[in-house]
Amino acid sequence: MKVGIKEKLKRKKNPLILLMFFMCFYIIMNLPIILFLTENYEGLKKFSPFGYSPFLLNIFNFDPSIYVSNNMSPIHPFLNFLTIPLVKIAKLLGFNTVMGYNLFFLILQSAINSLSVVIIYSLLLKKYKDVILAIIFSCLFGISSYSIFSAFIPDSYAYAQFIIVISLYYLLVSFKENQYSKNMGLSILNFGITSTNIIPFFISTIINLFHSKKLKEAFKRSVLLSFILLGCISLITFIQKILFNQTWLDSLLSNLNNGGFSYTADFSFFMHWKVIYLLFINPIMTPNIALIDLNIMAFVSDLEKSVPFYINIIAILVFIFVSLGIIRNFKKKEIWILFSYILFAILLHIVVGFGLAVFEYDMYLYAGHFLVAIWLLCAEFFYSIKSTSIKKILKYVLVVILVIILINNVSKHLNFYNNLVASYESIINSESRLDSSNEWEFFSNNDGFKIVRTNLNLSERPYVVFKNGEKLKDYNADYFNTSDLTDFYVNNYLYISISNIDSNWSEDYTPTEQEIQHYFEANEYTVYFKN
């Protein structure tokens, strides 16, 4: 009896220990980055595409969307119901400085990600009663790369992942077919924060219904839930219109084109095989991260570097565990629910090709929301093992995997911080004025503008050009179609398009080298390189 009481007390303490440990872990890991961005805010602001926000770092595909008050789109329909209150709460609590805002969201999102760890622990413990495995798998989720990075970047990812974790707890542990309010609440949250997340959630709901009801009755309830969901979405959209005078539907086509279809490409294994890492491996194990584009200061997975052998080994082991979890428990509804999240990611990113057009600009392929499903499917395999000795051996294997992932993610996070600091210092120290000391050449006449060039005698590398303090757009020189565009071409020439109005050159006039030099003396052009 005493042992039972001690075990119960131990189990009650574990969630609190996990919560406090991971909150401290996320804050300690990410605070140096926040401090660097804050202390160097004014100097870095000119380079960042997010100059409107206190958060300047651009890790693709994370944006500081929390600071966008009108953040309502087909991708994030009701996100502004979350972002506006959060920013106001931060301000009311006195976190209304650059450091304050960044610290507020670091603490908040560290708490949210830590709660996700606790919920996963509780889910596994309630279903399978194995404390050790529950701790190991919840920790594997907690130390995963996606959990670490989403803890400090003020974007939708931490919140979307949290809703998915809660949804899976509901779907796997506490689902009841007549609880319409819970189902609708989670449906709206999934749809509102990231609309595509409603698909695996709704599929999982249907799986639960068909598992517990006869076919005809399950179909009726599925149709009923669909209509209730559409009604709720319509009502909230109406409220959105009243409160903000606009809705997520207002720019449906333009948002889908700019943020969706333009990023879509047909999958080719020869061209896109590395997306397997971005989709399934990088969310678990932090990759090498590199700055590849100074115009948008894009830090992304360094696809040029070879992947360490230990990452490939762990990726293979995780794949085997997931596969065995599916095969050994194929008839269980839990497997189909979890696999629906992974399958949807494959359909969206591989079959449809969403994100493939610009996959080189991602750290993860858009979002690793399905990360939790990977670890829960692994857990399903371990819980299905009947042999005590085999399970014990595999537990040790899991602990080794956990330690390797932890070491990799901590070291790669530190490397990222050092790379971040070194990259910005390198860029700032590389400042060079473009003026009469450069040998300028006239290149071509165009409608309303001219193209000039100069050989900078530098190998091709990331760069950015400013004109009178304003950043110029990087564009392929072969397709210049307006003024104020730049391109550092493979021939080491920097090409710049100059407006005829700005330069006072007539449409068909060919300026001399001296006239071009005079123009650059009159206008302050500055170029920065990543050394």
TrEMBL record:
It comes from the Bacteria. InterPro entries: DUF6080. Keywords: Membrane, Transmembrane, Transmembrane helix. The chain crosses the membrane at residues 16-37, 103-124, 131-152, 158-175, 187-211, 223-244, 275-297, 309-328, 335-357, 363-382, 394-411. Pfam families: DUF6080 (PF19558). The keyword Transmembrane applies. The keyword Glycoprotein does not apply. This is DUF6080 domain-containing protein. It comes from Lysinibacillus xylanilyticus. The lineage of its organism: Bacteria, Bacillati, Bacillota, Bacilli, Bacillales.
